């Protein structure tokens, strides 16, 4: 029956909800229940990680990365300082032309060769080789995992500006080994980069002004210039 002017009819539950929430909120679709879960969008796989991760940095936080970077710098700094403050002897410089192995086994030789690679915009090859050498000295599996992922991100990822040139076979092998990283995960890649430096950069280094200047003794100062 119709309500009297003094006693308006009671609103229905839906009308009461609209009066309480207002017209804008009342027109919104009802919220989903616990059983109505929205489907999750499939994560886009980063092409640099392929098989072991969907994001290069999703398995460890930035704080752990910064801590490892500080540890890495503290380890590499003494080597760089030592190589810079110990000039090679003429005999040692001459031995670098005998074989690429002798050059790479010499701390001063690595330093000079790295400076030469920098002029050719291929310094990342030496940096990758050194990082692999450092990785092989680690025995702690936790440290190995983090260093391996950093090496992958810095030198293997196709998104890295320091990506080294590796063939598809070696890349596929690295992707499989990254499931369970070890100190020798990058051995094949390290050998390939070593060979690349040997065949490509090393001959140009031996004929470069940088190396020739080290072979020539400093000319004696004439009395007129004194």
UniProtKB/TrEMBL annotation:
Q: Which PANTHER family match?
A: REGULATOR OF G PROTEIN SIGNALING (PTHR10845), REGULATOR OF G-PROTEIN SIGNALING 19 (PTHR10845:SF145)
What name appears for this protein in its UniProt entry?
Regulator of G protein signaling 19
SUPFAM superfamilies named in the record: Regulator of G-protein signaling, RGS
Q: Is tRNA processing among the key words of this record?
A: no
Extent of Pro residues compositional bias: 1-12
Record's keyword annotation contains Membrane: no
Pfam families in the record: RGS
Origin: domain of life: Eukaryota
* Alphabetical list of InterPro entries matching this protein: RGS, RGS_sf, RGS_subdomain_2
Q: What is the lineage of its organism?
A: Eukaryota, Metazoa, Chordata, Craniata, Vertebrata
Give me the ranges of the annotated region Disordered.
Answer: 1-38
Which gene does this sequence derive from? RGS19
Listed under GO biological process in this entry are: negative regulation of signal transduction
The RGS domain covers 99-215
Q: Which UniProt keywords apply?
A: Signal transduction inhibitor
> Where along the chain is composition biased (Basic and acidic residues)?
15-28
